[in-house]
Structures are given as structure tokens and as C-alpha cells.
Amino acid sequence: EERDFELAAHMVGLHSGAAVENREGPIPVLQLRKYLAYCRNRCEPRVSSEAAETLINNYVSIRQSAKQEKSMPITVRQLEAIIRMSEALAKMELREDADE
Fold it and tell me: How far apart are CA 73 and CA 65, in angstroms?
């Protein structure tokens, strides 16, 4: 519960312009920034064909079940967000394919 509170307070602070406390974590901030810059410049992963097939099948399945249950279906925007997160994870791991 305390972790949830800290996370929520941090996110609200970021979006309200409040000063953010600069704490050191398991990796020094400067080293983390250098690593992220390296990842941005050197790695451009794309969704693998197997992952693309899985995403398509799950997207269609979720939309069909939402229609049957008369609930809000997943949107293309949400699918795109999932793809971006997969690519970002692959980039952080310096992989060429986003397959998870």
C-alpha cells in the first residue's frame, strides 16, 4: 500500500509540475541515462512474425468476446500501445525482435 501511494504521488507530481526528488536506485542515474541513450540510438526492434500473429489473434478474440458480453471492446489504439510496449521492452533488452 505504501508503494502504491509513493507511485501515485510520483505520477501526479510529474504531471502537476511539482519538484521530483532525485534518489539513487540500484543503478546510478547517470549510468541509466547513458544506457537508455545507447538503446535509443542503437536498437530498433520490430515485432516478430510469431508475435504479430499472436497479437492479431488475441485482438480479434478480445473484440469478439467483448461484443458477445456487450462490454467495451479493445481499440486499435490499445493494440498499438501493446505493440509499443513490446518494442520498448525489446529495446531495453537490446533485442532485434519484439517477441514477447
Answer: 8
| 0.85 exceeded by pTM | no
Q: What is the DSSP string of 18-74?
A: --------SS-HHHHHHHHHHHHHH---EE-HHHHHHHHHHHHHHHHHHHHHT-PPP
The whole-number average pLDDT for the span 2-30 is: 76
43, 37 Cβ separation under 8 angstroms: no
Tens of pLDDT, residues 18-57: 655 566 678 887 888 898 899 889 899 999 999 999 999 9
Residue in 14, 89, 6, 98 with CA at minimum distance from that of residue 55? 98
Residue 39 CA, distance from chain mean position: 15
Q: In Å, what is the CA distance from 96 to each residue of 35, 42, 67, 81, 99? A: 16, 10, 36, 19, 9
